[in-house]
Design a protein that fits this description.
This protein has 182 residues and is mainly alpha-helical. The protein folds into 2 domains: 88 residues, Serine Threonine Protein Phosphatase 5, Tetratricopeptide repeat (Alpha Horseshoe), CATH 1.25.40; 93 residues, Tetratricopeptide repeat domain (Serine Threonine Protein Phosphatase 5, Tetratricopeptide repeat). Helices cover 77% and strands 0% of the residues. The protein is built from 10 helices and no strands. The longest helix has 19 residues.
Length: 182
Amino acid sequence: MNKIMIGAGALIVVLMIVSSVSNGMQRRKIEMQCKNGDIDICTKLIESKILKPKELIMAHAFRGYHYDKKGQYDKALDDYNEAIKLNAEEPALYLQRAGVYADKSDLNNAIPDFNTTIKLSRSPGVLLAAYCGRGLAEMTKGDAASARNDLQEAKNIVRGNKVDCVTKLEQGLGQPPNTATP
């Protein structure tokens, strides 16, 4: 009973803070709680209507990430879909959504999101993750030729540095590490 009352009291305090915060230290503290995994705080921020568009996108992305880590894939997808509606040109959102689809073993939806990430991104780190993710998905689906192409693209990005996703692709394709693909 005391836990319920304490929990309800904390929720009321959070609602009061979120509804009254417009700028400053308190707002950043709340946003950090959302970023660090407090799904309830993320939800309150999203529902508060005080966030600027970029902040709203981030709140959806953080909440989606945390839902994914908890295995709540449909909720994660809802958040990434909403974030993509707000900014369809952000490659990292497609990459994250592709990861959720992959976690759900829904490779038919993951691969197009990896494709979109590759098309939109100029960031080597994002591109590496997209090529590795797509390559692993293609390998899982039995498309070794496409997976090899993605392995080569990933190797071109890392230029000889050891990276876990490249190693996983090499092992899955039966190639010794740090060799060129045919």
